[in-house]
Amino acid sequence: MTLLPGASHHPQGMPGPIRECVEGYVYAQGPRRYLLLHRSARKGGFWQSVSGKVEPRDRSYADAVRREVAEETGFSDPIRVTDLEWTYLFPGGDGLPWRLHAFAVEVPRASPPRLTSEHTEFQWLPYPGAVARLYWPDNREALRRLEQKVGP
């Protein structure tokens, strides 16, 4: 597989290569609601969007987020996947640098997802409740960008 853009970049002060991951901010219209997932205690016990590693079989970051959304929720046929043009570099628990790529993923309706052992519960929330519930500041920024991009 050809490396995705930036996959071999070494930021100053961080060991390389960078590990790539994606986040999928799943939402449904009418009225707009955002899907949040609660990670199991062994995975941190906080609320977040769909997230996961980019794998060698993924042809693009958008493909990676589609795969992760399908794996973690069962939603395999999104209406659209939109790049939020938001990346965030952070040190991973493994001591290596990670870069996340955030995407908006619109699904037909706010129906119950099929959860895996990675998550213990879910909630569909309007923007104020969703942004308040997210644990990480970069997650809140990605959701804010989604809300601006999608509009009222």
Textual characterization of the structure:
The protein is of the alpha+beta class. The chain has helices at residues 61-73, 127-133, 137-150; strands at 19-28, 33-39, 47-48, 50-53, 80-91, 97-106, 119-125. A hairpin with a 4-residue loop joins strand 1 and strand 2 (33-39). The termini are far apart.
Summarize the structure.
The chain is built from 3 helices and 7 strands, in the order ββββαβββαα. It is of the alpha+beta class. 28% of the residues are buried.
Shape: globular
The biggest sheet amounts to: 7 strands, mixed
Q: Note the run of SSEs as H and E.
A: EEEEHEEEHH
CATH superfamily: Nucleoside Triphosphate Pyrophosphohydrolase
Could you estimate the helical fraction of the residues in percent? 10-25%
CATH fold-level assignment: Nucleoside Triphosphate Pyrophosphohydrolase
Number of strands: 7
Q: What low-confidence regions span 5 or more consecutive residues with pLDDT below 50? A: 1-11
CATH class descriptor: Alpha Beta
Portion in beta strands:
25-35%
The CATH architecture can be named as Alpha-Beta Complex
Class computed from helices, strands and strand pairing: alpha+beta
How many discrete domains?
A: 1
Characteristics of this structure?
globular; Nucleoside Triphosphate Pyrophosphohydrolase; alpha+beta; disordered N terminus; 152 residues; seven-stranded mixed β-sheet
Itemize the secondary structure elements and their pairings.
Elements: E1 19-28, E2 33-39, E3 47-48, E4 50-53, H1 61-73, E5 80-91, E6 97-106, E7 119-125, H2 127-133, H3 137-150
Parallel strand pairs: 1-6
Antiparallel strand pairs: 1-2, 1-4, 2-3, 2-7, 5-6
Helix pairs in contact: 2-3
